[in-house]
Amino acid sequence: MNATTVQAPISLYGILRPMPERAEEVKRLLSSLVEPTRQEEGNLQYHLHEHDDGRLFLYEIWRSQEDLDRHNEYPPLRAFLDNLLDYLEEMPEGYFNTMTSAYPV
Length: 105
Fold this sequence. Notes:
By secondary structure, the chain is an alpha+beta fold.
């Protein structure tokens, strides 16, 4: 990448459906990641939402794929990701995209 090339941010959004008996645990775990994640190098946005039906929605924007990859190795998150089906009713519905609209500086 040359000095005039700007890499587009990476967005990630996903819907998670926790098992009813683990719903509060999943919500606590993901909520505990919000502020530390927002302090990570390369994080531009990180939001956790809860739907009325108990589904959780994550929305993240990262400066680069490398920043997102580094975030995904954070030990508490890695343990959750490695054992998703111990916590969730099904695999998350997730989307990874390169932003096409300009990201505000």
